[in-house]
Design goal:
Layout lengths: L3 E3 H13 L2 H8 L2 E2 L12 H15 L1 H4 L15 H4 L16 E3 L4 E3 L1 H10 L12 H13 L8 E2 L15 H11 L1 H4 L6 E2 L5 E3 L17 H11 L10 H12 L25
Helix pairs in contact: 1-2, 3-7, 8-11, 10-11
The chain binds heme C (2 copies).
Length: about 280
Amino acid sequence: MRSTLSLSAWLMAGVMAMYGSSALAEDAVKTTAPFNPPAEETMPSGPMGEAIRYGHQLTTQTQVYAKKYVGNDLNCSSCHLDGGRTPNAAPWVGIWGVFPEYRTRNAEVNSLQDRVNDCFQRSMNGKPLPEDSKEMKGILAYMWWLSKDVPTGVDVEGRGFKRIKAERAPNPVLGKAIYAEKCAVCHGADGQGMKGPEGQYMFPPLWGAKSFNIGAGMARLNTAAAFVKANMPLGQGGSLTDQEAYDVAAFFTQQPRPDYARKHKDWPKGDKPKDARY
Ligand code: HEC
Ligand code: HEC
């Protein structure tokens, strides 16, 4: 389950309480829009177009364009596949209109800037972007453009990850064997990923000092299993059973990875999910 509740859903609940109308209630639950990212050629020209393109570069070549804010070997698009244009890989299509959003992890209403910086600090094991930096403005411009055809307050189909269920307790020993057979060819036998001959990004690490830290969403079993099921092995998403996705996720999420210094501040209201690593 998503541990978030959008501001719009809250407002809707308030409106429904006021009117008590079942017709309105039915309309209110139909809150998804089709997944339709805008075509590349529709990117505007001029200063807005430049900011959008820069945001695309920042998120797909984060190692190059935002190096000083990144503490590992990942790009944003290592997880948000195709620069946030893949459903069920936490896409950014429609993201503009669903923030601000209340999140239980910090028990606050989070802006889209806060959410971007959360991934910088956890998934990228790095530092937050200054809110008024050109990098933040570029990322926001890109997300705004990706979202331009989605109404405000509406989730796209394929937002986040499609949750799956394990039939029995996930088994990391079986997961290790699945990893060796189906993942190691790209991510390396030791999980450290692989770089090209000039040190350039090729396959991202799944654990170790150069991977996401324990505070990242991907370090959580349910999230990692859902991502893997839909998207891995790359190009063969859906080929693992739900149980295999859980077993392999139980293996790699528990491998050593960087700590997250501010972890004690998470879930201040005490509703920590069971699959958190701390
Ligand atoms: C290691 C994988 C990983 C990397 C790298 C990563 N993220 Fe994320 N990101 C996640 C996960 C997991 C979520 C939570 C999605 C969920 O549970 O619905 C998320 C959520 C988000 C969201 C909110 C999505 C939503 O639907 O609410 C935004 C925005 C975002 N990330 C931006 C970024 C940016 C910008 C970068 C690069 C600076 C980045 N992420 C790097 C894994 C990653
Ligand atoms: C054909 C090569 C290939 C195979 C096989 C493969 N992956 Fe990936 N994986 C990738 C690439 C490439 C990315 C990053 C996508 C990008 O940069 O566009 C990725 C990203 C990931 C990520 C998010 C980024 C990170 O470093 O944490 C996870 C988790 C992941 N893969 C898990 C797996 C698992 C588990 C398997 C085996 C079931 C697997 N992958 C098999 C190529 C592969």
